[in-house]
Amino acid sequence: MLAAVATKQSPDDPLSCLSVRQVPAPTIAPDWARVRVVATTLNMHDLWTLRGVGHDPRNLPMVLGCDAAGYDDDGNPVIVYPVIANPDAGGGDETLDPGRALLSERHNGTFATYVTVPQRNLIPKPDWLTFEEAACLPVCWTTAYRMLFTQANIRPGDRVLVQGAGGGVASAAIKLAAAAGAVVYATSSSPGKRAAALSWGAYKAVPTGERLSDRVDVVIETVGEATWAHSLKSLRPGGTVVIAGATSGVNPPADLGRVFYQQQRILGSTGATRSEMVALLRMMQATGLRPVIDRTLPLSDVHKGFQSMLDGEITGKVVIYPPAPEDAEESRGAA
């Protein structure tokens, strides 16, 4: 089967480390299931792997990709929950399992015709979601959901700042927070992305670093060093920053004086539980929310998609289509 594989790592030229090539179809372990991937999407996690950040090079080569929607071997349309973990080891929360792994970290990912995952990681795909829309949810939308509703516990009327409008998590956070009745502020250096944020329900969208008219209750932070000072300055006393990424760097000045004097709270957030993903689907059905899709590409053009991410051209998600099985014999041989 065709797959996009990380073969090595380079902080300066990550796309040179990605190879689209034929690999053996996966075998199915006991209590695992196989999914024929109809649609998958690009995530920053894939670029971090190629750059050598947070990924053990001993696990290479590795099929990349964390998101997937497709069909199981019984023909059921499914969405893949992407965290391979034991909820019991995390005290009921699989994101707290010390041994957890996102697809493509220790298990081959979704940039391929087939992916295998534990049976519990399959969630029925609702018929009101397309495969493309469903494929946008497992990483970015679940991350935004947990940040807003589990970690920050936002309520109607709360003022929420989302840094870096245009990214997958940020676009999801804007839509989800607005649908929950929050007053959403968004930032971006791009006028086009600020306009997009307003169309998604943001109350105001301002250039990155611009002072807000009001201090906010919650900041959704995935940018890191470039926006950290602005995040703390924009936060009211007693407010909360929830951080789930640091695309511009992980070591900003901490500004501890501001944090303790104004009793600000800083919460980390990683991924989401399976039950949170199911709750996200219920919210989307009730509100009519749908993901923002920037473009769709065949797997053979995955390098072009990643280059667009590196160039900052993406607003929302890039959907990738792996090729369908070549014939029934390939499908039987992979079982």
List keywords for this structure.
335 residues; alpha/beta; Quinone Oxidoreductase, Chain A, domain 1; Rossmann fold; 2 domains; seven-stranded mixed sheet; six-stranded parallel sheet; 10 helices; 18 strands; 27% helix; 25% strand; globular; disordered C terminus
CATH topology of the largest domain: Quinone Oxidoreductase, Chain A, domain 1
Q: How would you sum up the global shape?
A: globular
Order of helices and strands: EEEHEEEEEEEHHEHEHEEHEHEHEHEH
Task: Say how many strands there are.
Answer: 18
Question: Into how many domains do the coordinates divide?
Answer: 2
Average pLDDT score: 94
Radius of gyration (Å): 20 Å
Terminal-residue CA separation = 13 Å
Poorly predicted runs are 327-335
Characterize this entry briefly:
Residues 13-320 form the Enoyl reductase (ER) domain. The chain is an alpha/beta fold and 335 residues long.
Explain this structure.
It comes from Mycolicibacterium mucogenicum (Mycobacterium mucogenicum). This is Zn-dependent oxidoreductase. It holds the Pfam family ADH_zinc_N. GO terms for molecular function: oxidoreductase activity. By secondary structure, this protein is an alpha/beta fold. It folds into two domains: 173 residues, Medium-chain alcohol dehydrogenases, catalytic domain (Quinone Oxidoreductase, Chain A, domain 1); 128 residues, 3-Layer(aba) Sandwich (Rossmann fold). It is 27% helix and 25% strand. The protein has ten helices and 18 strands. Strands 3, 5, 6, 9, 10, 17 and 18 form a seven-stranded mixed β-sheet that branches. A six-stranded parallel β-sheet has the order 13-12-11-14-15-16. Strands 2-1-4 form a three-stranded antiparallel β-sheet, with no helix packed on it. Helix 6 links the parallel strand 14 and strand 15. Helix 3 packs across helix 4. The longest helix has 15 residues. The protein is globular and about 60 Å long. The chain starts with a strand and ends with a helix.
